[in-house]
Amino acid sequence: MTSDAVTRELAEPPDALARANGYDEPPPRVGFFTDTSVCIGCKACEVACKEWNDVPDDGLDLLGMSFDNTGMLGANSWRHVAFVEQRRPAGQQGDGWALLDEMTAEVEPRLRAAPRGGSELGTTPLPTAPGGAVQDLGMPTFTRPGDGTGAETRTDFRWLMESDVCKHCTHAGCLDVCPTGALFRTEFGTVVVQQDICNGCGYCVSGCPYGVIDRSPLDGRAHKCTLCYDRLHDGLTPACAKACPTESIQFGDLDELRERADRRLADLHQQGVEEAQLYGRDPGDGVGGHGSLFLLLDDPEVYGMPPAPVVPTRYAPQIWRRVGAAAGAFALAAIGAFVSAAVGNRP
Amino acid sequence: MSELPENAAPPAEARSYYGRPVIKAPVWEWPVPAYLFTGGLAAGTAVLAAGADVVGAGRLRRACWLGSFGALLSSIVLLVADLGRPERFHHMLRVAKPTSPMSMGTWLLTAFGPGVAAAAIWELLPERWRSSWPARLLRTVSRGVGLASAATAPGVATYTAALLSQTAVPGWQEVREELPFVFAGSAAASGGGFGMVAAPPSEAGPARAFAAIGAAGELVASQVMERRMGLIREVYHHGAAGRRRRGADLLTAAGLAGTVLAAPRSRIGAAVSGIALLAGSALQRFGVFEAGVESTKDPRYVVVPQRQALEAAGRDRAVSG
């Protein structure tokens, strides 16, 4: 019965999402298209999200990761702008100083030693390096970058920026494992936590293959992007998309966003930006496609996202078959124990 | 602010965002692995108690119903304590969701608990009250519901493997084939171990047999699990998780040897073997739990297998196209 229910759920075509969840005449499924090729890293999306949704502040920590001092998505960060400095040419731009490798070498071992491996980045400072050395953040300074080392140390340089957000998956791991029904599918096809229901069991935190949702230490409940469910009811654009000055974050009906993403990808490929790729566009992927599409200029893991995640629910039929077999073995062992003891006791 | 260990993790082979984790580390703390143990113990002792009731081994029955009840109460306390909002524990009972192993587990425990409680309460009644009609009624009812609890016990003993495996945590998801058998064996070994500690050797024959089958099964399943692991073998071998798993293997093997050789003759031998099995079972749960937590902290464990899957899929397409 369990595996049948799971198979049924996974077999639903993505566009029948709201209907499949019991809505009679649902509005079209909505989502985001985040085009990172035009992101300028202004973080207006982060600020607008916090303002509108009244998301608590999570401390002012300099993380030593380029201009990223948010760290990652979490209970108190529903938009997160990633900054990646790379040694490769970007269009017509000149040379520069790309410090990704140096910063990674500084930050990575400190992340390993941080509480929960850095899952609460942005809410707690990273532990200091061995010997108490303080990381040079390289700013602010009154000299130009590289003045001290000379022009010969310049390399090819490009700076990737990406505003990350909840993917609002077609098959959402967080929603599937939620044991209280607090997480639900809205009529817009998005995934939202009902704060009056959530009891903070934390299962969704481990059910999400993207590391998006987290339990807040402030109120003990799970929080994540709601795609501004309240604004959607009033026909308004979500706060982050509204605030984005370059239309890097676009909001709309998912069908239209998919077309727009396809057109933008074709444009970029035609212009010779061959590394451009769409993320979450394919309804046949491991989560049935995203509600939040992305256009990336490098592989997803470079932005801290999984390259080919699979919703854990997809393994449920296999897991329950094995659990059933193990339970059967357990029962047989118990019966066998009494039978063998009875045989052994016979004079 | 914690100090860094000198031997920090080796650099990632996969590309990453400053080496930061891709998925969140679980928010669960020690009460969850502790519950994995007490839940298994409650199930293991319940089947022994019900069996002892059927074959008329009164002291084994009494000890195991009481042990099961104690483990069940501890389980409930541990599960509620790990919630972010403990006062809302009953929200678990709003829905029954086949896609959520935690919801299925909630209902399994709800079916399992009352029978164990009824049977244990009857065991606690003083001798002089047992002939009164309410006590006789309770005895009749508790025999039936106690047997019903024993019927759900195999589910209680093994669903926790689904609870861990149906997550994005690489260290738990990738052992989904074998973990149910490791946990089933661990639960049987702890239940049998408890029976050996609490009942005299003359009555503890079924407990010894159950413990021996469980311990042997756990050792084999654990070996198979480890052989089949890919990259995540590292987290099962290194650090605290590796130490606990090695300790679990040692104690379970020693307990198994003691169960077969010493426990049938000596009360002390039985008690020592039983305690070794109980400790081995607890260490196994903590080892598996911590290995999973560790696997979330390094992005390699998430990214490398997914890249490999993408490459394999790409090769398949190239071959068929």
TrEMBL record, chain A:
[4Fe-4S] cluster 3 binds at C166, C169, C174, C208. It holds the Pfam family Fer4_11. It comes from Geodermatophilus ruber. It comes from the Bacteria. This is Formate dehydrogenase iron-sulfur subunit. [4Fe-4S] cluster 2 binds at C49, C225, C228, C240. [4Fe-4S] cluster 1 binds at C39, C42, C45, C244. The chain crosses the membrane at residues 323-343. GO terms for cellular component: cell envelope. Residues 1-11 have a biased composition (Basic and acidic residues). Residues 30-58, 157-188, 189-218 form the 4Fe-4S ferredoxin-type domain. Keywords: 4Fe-4S, Iron, Iron-sulfur, Membrane, Metal-binding, Repeat, Transmembrane, Transmembrane helix. SUPFAM superfamilies: 4Fe-4S ferredoxins. CDD domains: FDH-O_like (cd10560). One of its GO terms (biological process) is cellular respiration. GO terms for molecular function: 4 iron, 4 sulfur cluster binding; metal ion binding.
Automatic annotation (TrEMBL), chain B:
InterPro entries: Electron_transfer_protein, NrfD-like. It is a multi-pass membrane protein. The chain crosses the membrane at residues 34-56, 63-84, 104-125. It is found in: Cell membrane. It comes from the Bacteria. Keywords: Cell membrane, Membrane, Transmembrane, Transmembrane helix. GO terms for cellular component: plasma membrane. The keyword rRNA processing does not apply. The keyword Membrane applies. Belongs to the NrfD family. This is Formate-dependent nitrite reductase, membrane component NrfD. It comes from Geodermatophilus ruber.
